[in-house]
Amino acid sequence: MRKAIDGLSVMVADQLARDPLSGAYFVFINRSRTIVKVLYWDRNGFCLWQKRLERERFRWPESEAEVMAIGGRELSWILEGLDLSQVQGHPRARYTNVV
């Protein structure tokens, strides 16, 4: 977890083949699963946010095959310590008109 904004943005572009300037949140975690970093572009500059747990560990995918794209709700669940494989919220309702 020694990488800062420059190193993480290069990793996003090179290893993940994603645009770090897209506004998407890119989440990284250390091996011991006690530190999470979130990198994102906000209008005119990068933001890097970090959370370190003192006693617990974050729930995180075990393999590359388990890596997934998540939304803000799921990110907040991870930060709260919930396991995404066991937690499932109500699905989003989509309507085309109001009766």
Structural overview:
- This protein is of the alpha+beta class.
- It has one domain (5-80).
- 19% of the residues lie in helices and 18% in strands.
- The protein contains two helices and three strands.
- The chain has helices spanning 5-14, 72-80, and strands at residues 26-29, 35-41, 46-52.
- It has a three-stranded antiparallel beta sheet, covered by helices on one side.
Give the SSE order as H and E letters.
HEEEH
Q: Please give the count of helices.
A: 2
Beta-strand share of residues: 15-25%
Low-confidence stretches: none
Main sheet record = 3 strands, antiparallel
DSSP summary, beta strand count: 3
Shape: globular
Number of domains: 1
User: Percent range for helical residues?
Assistant: 10-25%
Biggest sheet: strand arrangement: 1-2-3
How far from one another are the termini?
A: 52 Å
Q: What gyration radius follows from the Cα positions, in whole Å?
A: 16 Å
Q: Let me know the average pLDDT.
A: 87
Instruction: Please state the structural category.
Output: alpha+beta
Q: Which key features would you list for this structure?
A:
3 strands; 19% helix; alpha+beta; 2 helices; three-stranded antiparallel sheet; 99 residues
Question: What's a concise summary of this model?
Answer:
19% of the residues lie in helices and 18% in strands.
Could you outline the blueprint of secondary structure elements for this entry?
Layout: H1 5-14, E1 26-29, E2 35-41, E3 46-52, H2 72-80
Antiparallel strand pairs: 1-2, 2-3
